Amino acid sequence: MTLAAGGARPGPPPPVIDAEGLEKSYARESGLEVRALRGLDLRVQRGEYLAIMGPSGSGKSTLLQILGCLDAPTAGSYRLAGEEVARMDEDALAEVRNRRIGFVFQAFNLLPGASALRNVALPLMYRGVRPGQRAERAAAALARVGLADRLDHRPNELSGGQRQRVAIARALVTEPDILLADEPTGNLDSRTGREVLALFDALHDEGRTVLLVTHEAEVAERTDRVVHIRDGRVESIQTAGPRAAAPVGAAPEGAP
Amino acid sequence: MILENLRSAFEALAANRLRSVLTLLGVMIGVFAVTTTVSLGAIATAGITGQLQAFGNQALFITPNEDNPASTAFSDADIDALSRLPVSVLRQRSVRGVARAGTEEASLVLNGVTANAPQVDRTIKLARGRYFSEDEDRRAAPVMVLSADAREALFPSDPNPVGREVSVTVGSSRTFYTVIGAKEPLTGAFSFAASASADVPLQTLYQVYPSVTRGEYPFLPLTVSLERDLGDIEAQVGAVLARRRGADTFRIQTIEGALTLFKTITTILQAVLGGIGAVSLLVGGIGILNIMLVSVTERTREIGLRKALGARKGVILQQFLIEAVALTVVGGLIGLAAAIGTLYLAVALVPFLDQVVLSPFTVLLGLFVSVVTGIVFGVWPASRAANLSPIEALRYE
Asked: Could you tell me if B238 and B173 lie in one domain?
């Protein structure tokens, strides 16, 4: 328990995600209260490769929204890269999303009228980066995902796999603390899906923190650690998978 | 950021070209009406000023004060006193009679004037023949210069009546005159003053019609050269007459007063156009409001995405506001262009108006009105967009 305050001390870097006792309830129109999260704890270290799994209704979407700073928890604490974000207002959350989080969505969510380059440059615009620099960094991000020759293509001129790679480039371009991918292969055929997952593997190997939300065991297997959610709580944590480098749990925090 | 928003605004408008065009129609008509209204006022004023300049002089018109029974006609001594001021005074007496030429017959006003009338009254322009001379005035020669209306009434098939005879019956006396000239029709702002009349030498009028008392003038037309300040001269004329005749015995009118009707018509036209403009802008604005609400709904997912990527409320608000303003400004520009075209057309067709006056103020007003319409009717849809929750927006199908 005392270890939770680690972020304030010099020494090991704080966990990227440090959530404690997250609760989220919604009031249904019927007046019924739905408790989507019921005191969920989650800690993700820098450089981790993690999957969140759970059946529908388990609260995994709600968790992702809170972790992605799209929504605030009803109760509990959420420290993102050492910064408490659970009580932030909307504009402050927008800035945190822009600075710290790279989203990859199941449906890609690219702007249909804009070229790959402009799609990728979009988050940099909201950060206030000057246009010349935006294009440069966006082109570099597209090169990283293997689309250096598709800068001027619009989404409808790209294949599904290419579109998702544009979306990944858009998530990478701000150098976020964590990549959050929500069913990133859900709209892709299995071969293209594997290519996209291979890209996440490679990004992890470069030292990035990657969190996948999925219901496919095949996808989850590639990660270091799989967190199973049920009824708004962590049901079990599994450190299976060939890529696991260290035992998961208290060990990384206890290292010094 | 603003440039980027501007760009995405035009992309969004271009993506729905037909819808955009239909939407901006209302604003277009509104701005068209507003700018036309303002310009029309300026053009009409310039038209009046132009007419007065073409007239060559400023004019005053002095009459006795009819409300004052002690007020009498003006005398030669009054005229001599006024002539010391930098004004030209026209001695003029009129009688009404019936004119006959061949089988044609018409009611006619005979104006007895001095030979300098064309110099004093610049609206006198001769189409045919000549004006009478000082010598003919002195001799009381029976000659006349017909107005265009009189020529038309008496010699409908003959544009050149010079040398022909006209008999004029006043009361029981009948006199024959030789036509020596015919005037051009009155143009522009003066055309409403056109009537069937004929100018004859003043001495002729006195001699033929003894009932017209010499040296009594029921009104005095005065002209003042353009370099003089009319108000100043008016004051001096007033002072001279007040000293000679007493205050309250006369009235001084300016020719601008005679153009009041013209100005009234212009004002009514402006009010009607202004009303159309206001209604069009309102309806156009509601169209913008409607289409922007549709656009926000259609692009809910896009808004959610932009927010997820870090767009603050203010940025989204700005994006949609710029889109609404872009729509109205494009409409406004088209309206302005149409207005300018219409003004040129109006000037070409309406004789009163002689040049297009287009001030930068008018153009700026048109643009200002467009921008304000865009902001007023765009702010609600834009704030709806800005206040969307990112989760709801991303989930929207």
From this structure: yes
Q: Say whether pTM exceeds 0.80.
A: no
Single residue among B192, B222, B247 that ends a domain in this structure: B247
Residues of A with CB under 8 A from a CB of B: 65, 68, 70-71, 90-91, 94-95, 97-99, 103, 105, 109, 111, 113-114, 122-123, 125-128, 131, 170, 174
The DSSP bridge pattern shows strands A233-238 and B57-64 to be unpaired
What ipTM does the predicted assembly reach?
Answer: 0.87
Last residue of a domain, one of B247, B282, B312: B247
Task: Mutate one of A24, A66, A109, A130 to test the B interface: name it (highest B CB count within 10 A).
Answer: A109
The number of folded domains in chain B is: 2
CB contacts of A126 in chain B (<8 Å) are 306, 309-312, 315
Same domain, B221 and B290: no
Residue B57: band (very low, low, confident or very high) from pLDDT cuts 50, 70, 90: low
Report pLDDT digits (tens) over A168-221: 999 999 999 999 999 999 889 999 999 999 999 999 999 999 999 988 888 888
Q: How far apart (Å, rounded) are the C-alpha atoms in residues A118 and B7? A: 11
Distance CA A18, CA A20 (A): 7
* Same domain (yes/no): B284, B142: no
Using a CB-CB cut-off of 8 Å, the residues of chain A touching B308 are: 68, 70, 97, 103, 109
User: B116 lies in which domain range?
Assistant: 72-247
Class of domain A48-73+89-243: alpha beta
Residues of chain A with confidence (pLDDT) below 70: 1-11, 240-256
**How does B134-163 read in b/e, with b if 16+ C-beta sit within 10 Å?**
eebbeebbbbbbbbbbbbbbbbeeeeebee
| pLDDT bucket at B190, cuts 50 / 70 / 90 | low
